[in-house]
Amino acid sequence: MSEPRTTTGLWYAIFAYTFWGVVPIYLQLTRGIDGFELIGWRVIASVVVAFALVAATRGWGRLAAVLRSRRDTGSLVLAGFAVLVNWTAFFLGVLSDRVLETSLGYFLNPLVSVVLAVLFLGERLRPVQWVAVGLGALGVLVMVIGYGEVPWIGLTVAVSFGIYGLIKKRVGGSVDALSGFTIETVAALPASLVMMGVAIAANGLTVGANGAAGIWGTALLGLVTAIPLLAFASAARRISLTALAFTQYLAPIISFLFGAFVMLEPMPLERWIGFALVWASLVLVSTDLLGRHIRGHRARPRAA
Questions:
Q1: What residue stretches are annotated with the EamA domain (predicted)?
Q2: What's the rounded Cα separation, in Å, for the pair 109 and 107?
Q3: How far apart are alpha carbons 154 and 141 in whole angstroms?
Q4: Domain coordinates in residue numbering, the chain
């Protein structure tokens, strides 16, 4: 893989995860709007943005080429469902003042990716990885015991985005970022409209609950969705999973700082202990990945 291509991919990844890290701050504009209704507006706006970008870039031919592949189209439909679940859990967490739990989900995501690699790619865990997964599970258990409830928002965020990342990595070589994003958002549209309809039937239309700020914040959700997802897809095509694993810590770090020190969400001792165990597991995984990456990089010149 060429050095310029790798560097470009790394900057795409840094941009995407930094962007996702500040999304909880942006969503404060939409407070008061029903979470399920907001998801519907987000998907509608994303579909509009996707087709506008396809038209502007004359990407109809690339989109048609992807659609002719049943394998790629089916994978992207699954990715659309996975990202819809991720968005829903994330929105509900942020709008219910559980930003820290969403950050927990993204901290857990590398561990979920390791487990998914074992289940679906046939990889075998090394001893360090077993310890890391065990520490992560122990951290969640400590929070469950301390809080008396399962952090389902965080776990849903972690598993859904882990599945999404796995799918995107597998189709990244044959699907360009914009075509993939377009198919994913269209696939998510029917389910999101059902959720939106149920929410409006139960609570009425709430999109204007926060005045003009909420309306504009909702209207721009298509761009807020499209920009980091396109950057992430571009990164996944250019860099290794190792590099992605390191950059993805940016989003939960930013959202954790926002939840703990700006939103002032409660951080009792058991939550600190739980987060500390998860962070320790990430240090182990990162150290192991970095060591393997360095050894592989040194071995290539000798092999050549």
A1: 8-144, 154-287
A2: 6
A3: 13
A4: 3-121+148-266
